[in-house]
Amino acid sequence: MKFLFAPGFTSSGPVHVALALGAMVAIVSALVGVFTVVRSQSFAGHALTDVATAGGAGAGYLGVNALAGFVVGSLTGGVAMETIGVHRVRSRDVATGIVLGAATGCSALFFYLAANAGSSTGSTQRILFGSLFEVAPDTLPIVGLLSVVTVAALALIGRALLLSSVSPEMATVGGISTRSVGVIFMLTLAVSVGLSSVAIGAILSTALLIGPAASALRMARTIRGAMLLACVLGVVATSLGVLLAYDSYNWSSRHTPLPVSFFVVVVVVVTYALTYVPVLRRRATTGRS
Question: What's the pTM?
Answer without folding.
Answer: 0.85
